[in-house]
Structures are given as structure tokens and as C-alpha cells.
Amino acid sequence: MKPGVAVIIVIWNGVEDTLECLRSLVAEGYPNKQIIIVDNGSEDGSAERIRGEGFEVSLIRTGKNLGFTGGNNVGLAEALSSGVKYSFLLNNDTTLEPGAIGALVDAAEMSPRGAIFAPVIHYYDSPSEVWFAGAFLSLTRGEAVHNNFLHPRRDAAPYPSPWVSGCAMLARMDAVEEVGGLDDRFYLTWEDVDWCLEMRARSWGVEVVPSSRILHKGGRSGAKLLGIRSYYAVRNSLLLASKHAGRGYLAALLRITSRHLRSALRSEGRERIEVLGTVVEGLWDHFRGNYGPRKTKKGPSKTLGGFSAGPVTESELGEAGTEA
Description:
Blueprint: E1 5-11, H1 15-28, E2 33-39, H2 46-52, E3 58-61, H3 67-82, E4 86-90, E5 94-96, H4 100-109, E6 114-123, E7 130-132, E8 135-138, E9 143-146, E10 159-160, E11 168-172, H5 173-179, H6 191-201, E12 205-216, H7 228-244, H8 249-265, H9 269-288, E13 295-296, E14 299-300
Parallel strand pairs: 1-2, 1-4, 2-3, 6-12
Antiparallel strand pairs: 4-11, 5-12, 6-7, 6-11, 8-9, 10-12, 13-14
Helix pairs in contact: 1-2, 6-7, 7-8, 7-9, 8-9
């Protein structure tokens, strides 16, 4: 019997993407998986459509938008209670190649101190192009970016990466029990980098598995996120640096602030004003320790949950927890 895997998909609307993702999961072929859908307050009838299509899923309605972190933590708690060996966090704007989960599990079974395993991720609209196959990380610069030089062969051996994208990651539940779930302070973006660093700090490994492949849509609604991107990029990259950079935190603070202010000043007109405002807001909230969902005068902004596990998708804020 293959080890049990709980596939966790957090949704906020985007029902057509979710249904396509679920169809690919059925066709993927791993024999011992359960699917957990965490509905973060969808308003498009997602739950009803999923049930109407007859998919065998555990559906958890949170009643509100808990963010990427909160939604996945709900799913991880359910997975822990079910006794599975692995959880597979998956954005709903993805489709899987046959055997993708099995390849990840095989790699994990060969690496008992491996905590997180990620597939190579291709662009849905351009399948020959790689979106994620590994990453760079500089804590003192506040940078966590995709390594776009990597185009591994499918038969290449798994290899380590400083962090992997929350778009798709297989997590060993023994490691999750030891380290804990995603840090809810991030809410959206950078939480994947943080989780990988927390795992590595406790001597667990993080790897990319070239024989596992998925397709990722991403970037479809980025125009809706003017300013929001800058807010989370500033606030959450500073939170990450404060947690992990040690004495390099001050250098990270100066570089992150300078980089985002320069980027904002390159904008024009109303866009410049809005982006500058959100950069300052992100800095101010970091210094105040104001994390979680971004607050507005009317409370948490509904537009922030445009993620389907990852936003609007997480990638639309700058590649799932990264600083571009």
C-alpha cells in the first residue's frame, strides 16, 4: 500500500479552475490520496459545483477568508487527524501530469529527513517553459526569487533548494508536527519561504523532484492587485528577515525599503501615489507588528483573498512568496 497523501486545496472563488484541477487529480493516478477542499468564503457557488460534479472530497467551509496560511493550516489540521503520512498543498489554478504525486512520494520515501518536496512547475499557457524549478535566497537583501536558469531533465535526481513555491509542495507530516504549520502572520506570500527555512533550521530537507511535473496558470488577475503587491512584499519580506536574518536584519531593512521606494517612484501618476502609499503602509505595519490580512478602513480588504489557495493566485503577487 502506498503511503497516504492528503491533497489540500484552498479556494476563494475560481470554481472553473478548481474543477479543472480536481479532474487532473483524478487522472493523476495516485491510489491512496484524499482531497481536502478548504473553502475560504467563496461567493461563486464553488462548494455546490464541486459536489454537483460528484468529486470525492472533504469540504471544509471556513465562512471567511483566512488567507493562504490560515486556509492551509485548517487543511493541515484535518490531515493530521486523518493519520496520513504526507500532505500535498496545491493551488487550485494548477493541473497535474499523471504520476506527479507518486514521483514526489517516491522521492520522500528515499529521503527520511526530507520535509518538503516540490515538483517542477511549468506555465499552463506555455508548457515548454518552466515557472519554478528551484530558487535563490538572500536574507540580507530580502530577496527570494525563482532560479530561472534551472531546466532539469525529467530523469534527473532530486536536488536541494533553499525554499520551494507554495503553489505545490508535498510535506512530511512528522516534520509538520515538529515544526508546526504556516505562520499566520504572513497571511499571503513569503509564508512558503518561511516554512522551508523553519524546516531547514530543524535539520529537515527541502528538495525539488524533476520527475514530478505540474502546470500553473497564475498571473491572470495581476492587474487587480495594484498596490497590494507592494504592501505584502514589503511587510512580509521584513517579517521574514526579522525571523531569520539575525544581524543581517538591518541590512535587509535598508535594502528592501530602498528597492521598493525606487520601484514606486518609477511609476507614474495615480499609480505612483498608490504604490508609494502601500510601501509606507507595509513598513509601518511591520514596525507596529500588525500582520495577518491587510487592514482597511472597512476592515480586511476582500480583494486580498482573490487567491485560490494562493490568490487572485499567490503568484500574481510576485510568484508565491517571492520578492521579484
